[in-house]
Design brief:
By secondary structure, the protein is mostly helical. It is elongated.
Length: 217
């Protein structure tokens, strides 16, 4: 089959996937897209086909997310009613969302990853999935950022790096602190005793700095 026909086949599959309404149906599309990716990678000079097949695969994952978002815990079913010789519980156990997804053929973890893809605006998603370096990890990260924005939780700013640890500066600050509080110390504590405390702290700082340098090697 020529590359032009392969590309046309993927275009048709992308139009058809919109009609899929169940997890099982979309999983079939996903499996076909994986087979197509494998086929495209083994075809010489098929870089455009590999990129198109990957974009199609990512589209199937977004469609999975659109459908799994609608999966709810299974509702309880009514009991047998009155007049039965062998009474049963009034309701059957309720399936959790995880169990409902498992029955549909997908794990809760995968469903959560694919659902964040639906937070990316369609136009932006199509642009991102069509890039040569497009991947599930990159789109999931983008989806989480978009989800945070839409939920009113903008991406947190990175915390500034703490200044490098300087033992002499720390000791100087500690000395100043002790000097400031000498007047508040009990009368029976001499300045010599206070400076001895400072020396102990300074030695501790030096030891911590040595350990930090050893760990960083």
């Amino acid at each position: 089959m020529s590359e032009a026909k392969d590309l046309a086949l993927i275009d048709k599959a992308e139009r058809d996937i919109v009609q899929a309404t169940t997890v099982a149906e979309v999983l079939e599309f996903r499996d076909r897209s994986l087979a197509l990716k494998h086929y495209a990678k083994g075809k010489k000079g098929g870089e455009a086909l590999v990129q198109k097949a990957n974009a199609y695969y990512l589209l199937t994952l977004r469609r999975l997310g659109e459908i799994t978002k609608e999966v709810k815990p299974a509702p309880p079913t009514a009991g047998p009613g009155r007049g039965k010789k062998k009474p049963r519980p009034s309701v059957d156990p309720v399936l959790s969302r995880s169990e409902s997804l498992a029955e549909a053929g997908i794990t809760k973890q995968d469903a959560s990853r694919f659902e964040v893809l639906t937070f990316i605006p369609p136009k932006q998603f199509n642009e991102e999935r069509s890039k040569p370096d497009a991947s599930v990890a990159k789109l999931v990260k983008l989806g989480r950022e978009e989800k945070a924005k839409q939920n009113g939780n903008p991406k947190p700013r990175a915390k500034p790096e703490p200044p490098p640890f300087e033992p002499l500066v720390a000791a100087s600050q500690l000395a100043g602190s002790i000097e400031e509080h000498l007047e508040k110390w009990p009368a029976d504590v001499s300045k010599r005793d206070a400076l001895a405390v400072l020396e102990q702290y300074a030695n501790r700082i030096r030891e911590e700095e040595k350990e930090r340098k050893c760990r960083s090697r």
